[in-house]
Design a protein that fits this description.
The structure is a single chain. The chain has about 400 residues and is mainly alpha-helical. The protein folds into 2 domains: about 10-200, MFS general substrate transporter like domains (Growth Hormone, Chain: A), CATH 1.20.1250.20; about 210-405, Up-down Bundle (Growth Hormone, Chain: A). About 80% of the residues lie in helices and about 0% in strands. The protein contains 15 helices and no strands. Helix 1 crosses helix 7, helix 1 packs antiparallel against helix 8 and helix 9 (about 220-240) runs antiparallel to helix 15 (about 375-400). It is globular, with a radius of gyration of 21 Å. This is MFS family permease. It is found in: Cell membrane. Keywords: Cell membrane, Membrane, Transmembrane, Transmembrane helix, Transport. It is a multi-pass membrane protein. It comes from Catenuloplanes indicus.
C-alpha cells in the first residue's frame, strides 16, 4: 500500500515536468511550421507564375501577421491563461495549414498571414509558459534550463521546418501537399499535448488593451542601438527564410529542395549555437564576437554569390547565423539592463517590434531592388545597409557592458 502512495506535491511537480516538454514540443512544431514554405517558394513561383518580389510580399504578409498578433494578443495569456492562448495559436496555425492545400496566390497570402498571427500569439506565451512550468517542477532552480529550451524551440524550430519540408518536397510526390499534411499531423499532436499540460495562470477578468511599448528613459541611445541590432539580426534570418532558396537556384544553380531546406536549417542551427556559445561571456565580449562574426559572414556571403561559390555561400550563411544569434542575445540582455523591472516587458515589446520590422522591410526592399538591379548587386546593397546599421549600433552598445567588466 505504501508503494502506491504519492504525495500531492511530487504529483503536481511531475505534471509540470511533463507539461514542460509538451509545451516545448508545441513551441518547436509551430515555429517549424511557420518556416516550412521556405524551400517551396520556387515551386509556388512555377505554379502561380510570380517573381521574386511577390515572394518577399508573401513573406511581408507573414511578418505583418506576427506584428499585429504580438501587439494585439501576445500578452493576453497573462490574464486568460497560457494554455488557452496556445490552443488558439495552434488552431489558427492548423487553419493556415488548410489554406496551403488550396491553389492560387490569394490562398498562399492568407495562409501566411494566419501563420504569422499564430506565431504572434505563440512566442511570448510559450516562453513564459516554459519558465513557469520549469519553476513549478523545480522550485528554487534558476531559469537557464527554461531559457535554453525556449531558444532551441524558437530558433531551432524555424530551422527544422524548412529542412523537413525540403526533404519531403525532394523525395515524395505532391511536394506542395505532403509537407502540410505532415505538419497538420504534428500540429494536431501538439494540440493534444497542450490540452494535457497543466495551467500556470489563474484566469482574471481584465479589459483588453494592446501591448504597450516603453522606451527606457535612462539611456535611449543604447536602447536604440539594441533595437538596430535586433533589426539587423532579424533581417539576416528573413533573408534565409524568403529569398535564399531563389538565390541557390537562380545564381548558384542548386535546385534541390532538400539542399534549400538544409541551408536554411543550418543558418538557424548556427543561430542557436551562437546564443549558447555566448552564455559564459560578458555582455561586451558577446556583442563584440557577435558583431565581428556577423560582419565576416556577410562578406563571405557576398563573395559566395558574386564568384559564385556554393561553399563560400554556405560558410557565410553559417557565420551570419552565429553572429545574428549572438548579437540578438546581446540586444535582449542590453534591453533588460536598461529597463526598469516593472517596464521590462514593454521595453522588450519595442525591441521585438523593431526586430519584426527587420524581418520584413529589408527583404521587401531587396525584392524591389532585384526588379531593377542584378540580384547579386541587390544582395550587395542589402549587406552594405546591414553593415551601416551594425557600425551605428556598435559604439553605444559596447559602452553598456563597461561597468560590468571585472
Amino acid at each position: 500500500m505504501s508503494g502506491t502512495t504519492v504525495s500531492p506535491v511530487p504529483t503536481v511537480r511531475g505534471a509540470h515536468g511533463r507539461g514542460f516538454w509538451l509545451i516545448a514540443y508545441a513551441f518547436a512544431v509551430m515555429m517549424a511550421f511557420s518556416a516550412a514554405p521556405t524551400p517551396l517558394y520556387v515551386l509556388y513561383q512555377q505554379r502561380d507564375g510570380f517573381g521574386p518580389f511577390m515572394v518577399t510580399a508573401v513573406f511581408a504578409v507573414y511578418a505583418a501577421g506576427v506584428v499585429l498578433s504580438v501587439f494585439g494578443g501576445g500578452h493576453v495569456s497573462d490574464w486568460l491563461g497560457r494554455r488557452r492562448v496556445l490552443v488558439w495559436a495552434l488552431v489558427i496555425s492548423m487553419t493556415s495549414g488548410v489554406l496551403f492545400f488550396l491553389p492560387g496566390l490569394p490562398a498562399l497570402l492568407a495562409g501566411r498571414f494566419l501563420s504569422g498571427v499564430g506565431v504572434g500569439l505563440l512566442t511570448a506565451t510559450a516562453t513564459a509558459y516554459l519558465m513557469e512550468l520549469h519553476l513549478a517542477h523545480r522550485p528554487g532552480a534558476n531559469r537557464r534550463r527554461a531559457d535554453l529550451v525556449a531558444t532551441a524551440a524558437n530558433i531551432g524550430g524555424i530551422g527544422l521546418g524548412p529542412l523537413l519540408a525540403g526533404l519531403l518536397a525532394e523525395f515524395v510526390p505532391y511536394p506542395l501537399i505532403v509537407p502540410f499534411v505532415v505538419f497538420e499531423i504534428l500540429l494536431g499532436i501538439a494540440l493534444l499535448g497542450v490540452l494535457a499540460a497543466p495551467e500556470t495562470v489563474s484566469r482574471r477578468d481584465v479589459p483588453w488593451r494592446p501591448q504597450r511599448v516603453s522606451v527606457p528613459a535612462g539611456d535611449r541611445g543604447r536602447y536604440v542601438a539594441a533595437c538596430l541590432t535586433a533589426f539587423a539580426s532579424f533581417a539576416i534570418f528573413g533573408l534565409f527564410t524568403s529569398l535564399a532558396p531563389g538565390f541557390l537556384a537562380g545564381v548558384l544553380g542548386e535546385r534541390s529542395h532538400a539542399i534549400a531546406g538544409l541551408v536554411t536549417f543550418s543558418v538557424f542551427a548556427a543561430g542557436v549555437a551562437g546564443q549558447l556559445a555566448m552564455l559564459r561571456l560578458s555582455l561586451r565580449a558577446a556583442l563584440s564576437t557577435g558583431f565581428a562574426t556577423l560582419a565576416a559572414g556577410l562578406c563571405m556571403l557576398i563573395a559566395g554569390i558574386w564568384l559564385p561559390a556554393f561553399a563560400l555561400f554556405i560558410a557565410g550563411g553559417l557565420l551570419t547565423g552565429v553572429g545574428a544569434g549572438a548579437a540578438f542575445k546581446g540586444a535582449v540582455a542590453t534591453t533588460l539592463t536598461l529597463a526598469e523591472p516593472h517596464a521590462r516587458g514593454e521595453a522588450l515589446a519595442g525591441l521585438f517590434l523593431v526586430g519584426y520590422l527587420g524581418l520584413a522591410l529589408p527583404v521587401l526592399g531587396l525584392g524591389l531592388a532585384a526588379q531593377r538591379l542584378d540580384s547579386r548587386a541587390a544582395v550587395l546593397c542589402f549587406a552594405a545597409g546591414l553593415m551601416v546599421l551594425l557600425v551605428a549600433a556598435a559604439r553605444p552598445l559596447f559602452r553598456v557592458s563597461r561597468p560590468r567588466r571585472g
